[in-house]
Amino acid sequence: MIPMKKLRVALLCLWSLISLPVLAQDAEVKRVDPTNWWIGMKNPTVQLLVYGKNLSKANVSIRYPGVKIDKVTPLENPNYLAVDLTISETAKPGTFPIKFRVGQQELTHTYRIGYRHDPNKRAQGLTSADLVYLILPDRFANGDPSNDKYTSMADPNADRNNPYYRHGGDLQGIIDHLDYLKDLGITALWLNPVIENDQPLTDEGGAMRSAYHGYGFTDHYQVDRRLGGNEAYKKLVQEAHKKGIKIIQDAVYNHAGANHWFLKDMPSKDWLNQWPKYTNTSYKDQPLLDPYASELDKKVTSNGWFVPHLPDLNQTNPVLANYLIQHALWTVEEFGIDAWRIDTYIYNDLAFMNRCNQALIDNYPNIHLFGESWVSNVPNQAYFTRNNIESKFKCNLPGGMDFQVYNAINETLKQNNPEITYQVLAQDYLYKDASRNLVFLDNHDTDRYFSVIGEDLDKFKMGVIFTLTTRGIPQLYYGTEFLMKNFKNPSDAEVRRDFPGGFPGDKENKFTVEGRNKTENEVFNFVRKLANYRKQSPVLQTGKLMQFLSQNGVYAYARYNGSQTVMVIMNSQKKEVSLDTDRFAERMKGFNSARNVLTDEIITGLATVKVPGQTALVLELRK
After folding, report:
1. CA-wise closest residue to 190 among 330, 406, 340
2. Is 372 known to be catalytic?
């Protein structure tokens, strides 16, 4: 195992090795990425990154109808070539040899092309009609214990007694529980990254930790075999689609794992953002928008490394940029995923991100892309999406993770002050379409929601009701449906514990009624009922939102369309209130009764509505 400090120094000094004179003349082709391609993509060109040995002077040739070589570019490292191809629409699916002649030596690599899928069906996208469920694959369910660990990998450990090691969850485990998720009302799964993370253990805060979370890619074209590999991922997508469940992939463009194959022998010195000495990002979003910011501060935000063991990729390098964009297209076409969640969005080169986003949208018109921009306020969050802000640079990202609403609803419930949430939503005018933002109570990087609100069951229900009835795309974190809890103390591992019942030998099985206690079943049934009501309710999916100023701790809003209105009334006070509804007449006039969606009680006479303390009513209005 290589200490991370030494590994980082090795990466930063790697260019000195690349610059050494070539001693051996034997050439070799070790890999070609993308591994395969398709006829009929919007851009008929594809750039192959060819890696091997002594390839800089290779003469490259292809003889296949409809495929031609446009350009061959040696990279600074003589072991790499960039080969630009044009694939005509007249080309036929098949395989063909790519020949590399180096002196008297001839090498052959067999390449495959095929017809692309129907772009209107390949990526279904993600809309406000969906309910997303976030899963950390290693911690959800172990469907195939045979793939838990491999002695040939940099991290051969699997130990559920160690919170920092891999625990053995995999894609088959998710497949095995698709019926549970469908029954709960879930329509889309966001999986933390599934791409290979063949990383060694790293010393983080004095503890040796694995890359079980998935954010340190080491081979873009392989799904981690400890999760089941490429075939298991294809199977998951297919089986999920059969049950009406979409798949969202977690994209990481900003960095790669220090053990990535192309970092062991870098194509060029500028493949990474290099600094005279190690420089971490400041984690500050403000310099990217501040009209008075220094260039250094901007550079540190964008080009500083996220953490020492995740080298920062230089997306202004044109070959690397093509590599990342083509991998994104390849992933959608190869596996059939429906949407992208983009990690650490603000730390990427934003011009590159616009180019990458547009390539995906051009090829897959229904796809949805949303980014993680964990920033300081609503205007800054809106800046990193399509927005109505006058600025020199415009982001084209369709949606974002709504951290401002996340902060607001958590603070609203902790402080019993719904004005906080009202004020955040009142700034939606900054977005082109706020309904494309992901709304959530917690995720793998935050404290668990039930713990944040003091394990208060009434507040828990109010937050879930808000999440599933406000504008946007709602997201639940695995285990929220039966009150999984904890703070990030001493580490993130505490909020990423195993799903009880997902692993052989578990004493409890929260996937079943029998495995949950009375309170857990009460909460599960509550979440399930509201989620499935939302699943069948167009007004909660796509209806307009009208919110009313909060008064005396009461916050009310309506979701409405031409045929239906649902009123949500949240009472943050501890005592019951008898609410005069006159001021809600814009939405309630003409209705004389309502059905309480959660209790099925019919309420007649709506002039006054009684709302119990610390309760949110969901009322389907009737005439």
Report:
1. 340
2. yes
Which of the following is catalytic: 372, 402, 428, 498? 372
Annotated active-site residue in 343, 402, 492, 498: 343
Say how far apart CA 602 and CA 353 lie, in whole Å.
50
Q: pLDDT per residue over 445-486, tens digit each?
A: 999 999 999 999 999 999 999 999 999 999 999 999 999 999
In Å, how far are 128, 207, 503 from 495, measured between CA atoms? 27, 17, 17
**CA dist., res. 397 & res. 387, Å (int):** 9
Six-digit token pair at 313? 């990729």
Say how far apart CA 188 and CA 337 lie, in whole Å. 11
Cβ partners under 8 Å of residue 81, min gap 6: 48, 49, 50, 55, 56, 58, 60, 72, 73, 74, 75
Query: What's the CA gap between 191 and 256, in Å, rounded?
Result: 18
Residues 6+ apart with CB under 8 A from 518: none
d(CA 306, CA 314): 13
Q: Characterize 574-599 residue by residue with b for buried, 16 or more Cβ atoms within 10 angstroms of its Cβ, and e for exposed.
A: eeebebebeebeebbeebeebbebbe
| Tens of pLDDT, residues 158-174 | 999 999 999 999 999 99
The answer to whether 343 is a known catalytic residue is yes
Q: What does the alpha-carbon distance between residue 245 and residue 240 come to, in Å, rounded to a whole number?
A: 5
- Residue 199 CA from chain centroid, whole number: 20
Are 36 and 115 in contact by the 8 Å Cβ rule? The answer is no
Report the C-alpha gap between 464 and 461 in whole angstroms.
5
> 98-154 pLDDT, tens per residue?
999 999 999 999 999 999 999 999 999 999 999 999 999 999 999 999 999 999 999
Local structure of 367: helix, strand or coil: coil
Quick one: which of 316, 319, 327 has its CA closest to 193? 327
Q: How many CB atoms lie within 10 A of CB 298?
A: 17
